[in-house]
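Example record used in the benchmark description.
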Amino acid sequence: MSITLKEDLAQITSILNEIFQIVPFKRDYDTAFGKICNILRKYGIDENPRNLRFRFILCMQEFFDSIPEDDWRLKDPDFLKQADEAGISKFIEWVIEQVS
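Model output (structure tokens):
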């Protein structure tokens, strides 16, 4: 993996981590995923921010699908952080697959 790709993946991860630091109702997903779109265009991935956001939601859904619904702790900040991190990780894997 090239140094540039590693740096871009780190930047994407940073953008996603930053958005999850913001109180949910104040998050600007369109801007965050717009920044990610700009990064991905360098690699020929021409998606719009809403499509990328949907892709990210699917990545997060994989985390929730892997756990019985009775075990979801939606009011537990640690559980939600774990879900965020799993979604980010899956999204980064998807980006790598698209670039490869």
